[in-house]
Please model this.
Amino acid sequence: MTGQAARDPFTLALTGDVMLGRLVNDVVARRGYAYPWGDMLPALRSADLLCVNLECALTRVTARWQGDRWKPFFFRAEPEAVETLRIAGVSFASLANNHIMDFGAAGLLETREVLTRACIAHAGAGTDVASASQPVVLHVRGWRVAVVAFADYPEAWCATDGAPGMCFTPVSPHAKDFTSVERAIVAARAAADFVIFSIHWGPNLRLRPPPEFQDFAHSVLDAGADVFWGHSAHLLQGIELVDGKPVLYDTGDFVDDYAADPVLRNDFSALFLLRCAPPSVERVEIIPALIRDMQVVRATGPERTAIVRRLTDLSAELGTTLTEDDGGCTVVLPRADRAGPTTRRTRVPPGSGTPSR
Model:
């Protein structure tokens, strides 16, 4: 595009799930809106764009969703908790997940209104299927950055032509219909210089993506996305490079009140900082973090070492080399015009999983 060479690169920050409900909602009322971010706040605010998966409704509605399947967890924060997102400088919140309709369509619609009033962009859920699948376009340093957001469950919350809901797509080995995903990416590609694809997917507590998830991610990049951003497993998974584009299979949790598994360590977290010069991502910097007492903080000592080792090992299985540095670890990507033979449909051993929370 004309003038593209004069545009500066920008920093895109991606987190995993941000759950502001339950005990987090309570602690914010006592300790202030900035509390959940701990000492990570300067790093969050340093990014040009900060994108999170909002794993709760922001609503005064208290009537829980009633459906034909049992649901054990319902996450809701008071609308005022949007100030927590504003303090961190959140640019975008994905709403395509298995908690956005915990308090029904009314809770979903109020969440959208709360975010809109706070000038926080959002995608992945809407008043109907057209609204839910609409890409959002962010403007940064002269670039147009589009975000498309999907989830692979629950199908019961799928937006329709006449009803609110989230943007749903199946990601099973038997799912043949990729049309809705491809259509959304094509629309985003036409409207922007750079496309981020977000998806909330798969079972909990899985360290590795199964083969069908890898195939799906590769298809998303083939369709025109520049970054694949996954979340939902509550665990950090490895990074893969596909034709010079990064696939973050799962970015884990970032803010929550969950009990920590002593072996799988779902309290291990990270902030992913991508240096982007469209159409390329030049590097991914990873700041290891821990979730403690409803707050995310920088990891230090043995726990920092363990997080770096986990990400390094899991990424190596996917053919990606991470380099440890003072802040955490980094992966440097080849330029798009000379990407070369980066990995393609690498297979890793499927991990065990538990039903989604």
Summary: The chain has one domain: 8-338. The radius of gyration is 19 Å. Residues 301-317 form the longest helix (17 residues).
